[in-house]
Amino acid sequence: GLRKKEVSVLCLGLDNSGKTTIINQLKPSNTQAQEIAPTIGFNIEKFKSSSLSFTVFDMSGQSRYRSLWEHYYKESNAIIFVIDSSDKLRMVVAKEELDTLLNHEDIRNKKIPVLFFANKMDLRDALSSVKVSQTLCLENIKDKPWHICASNAIKGEGLQEGLDWLQGNFS
Ligand code: GTP
Ligand code: MG
Question: Is 121 exposed, middle or buried (0-12, 13-18, 19+ CB in 10 A)?
């Protein structure tokens, strides 16, 4: 058959935002993990969509591992950035990490798509995706295609919408 285009995706965001839960949901059900522990360092996951073959670098968001992120900027074709919409206290930390990422020399001039998941939308005090977008000042991103989806990674809601957008935005 036709070979699918291979893309390398970097999954970033603070610890406990839901990155591994999201990636796990995107994998075929027979390869999904039943329990998810905080990521140590990073994990590499592979899955296919209708047109693409994904290699995802699921990075740990713990502060002690965030210095690993930049080593994978050069080879990435897209970024998935996950936010815990209910973690209002650390939204400013998420913004700092996002700004550092977007200003990095290996990312700044790359026109790669950035998909945001405003995750944990099921929690009562979660901010809406519009509010998350405003808090992170996403409208300031002018040089890359970006998109934000509200998601509930536990139920898998919002994830396919995000993946569909991503599929349509690889150059
Ligand atoms: P690190 O690997 O430490 O960077 O964390 P992570 O971003 O990979 O988070 P992980 O996927 O391990 O999820 C952290 C916790 O949040 C787990 O207990 C998940 O079950 C929970 N969680 C993930 N997504 C959601 C969601 O949409 N809603 C709710 N209520 N809980 C979620
Ligand atoms: Mg993880």
Answer: buried
ipTM above 0.90, yes or no: yes
pLDDT of residue 171: 74
CB 157 near ligand 1, within 6 Å? no
Ligand 1 in contact with 162 (CB < 6 A)? no
pTM of the model: 0.98
| Token pair in block for residue 74 | 């050069």
- Which residue shows structure tokens 């690993």? 68
| List of the chain residues with pLDDT < 70 | 1
Give yes or no for residue 85 CB within 6 A of ligand 1. no
Instruction: Give me the active site residues, please.
Output: 62
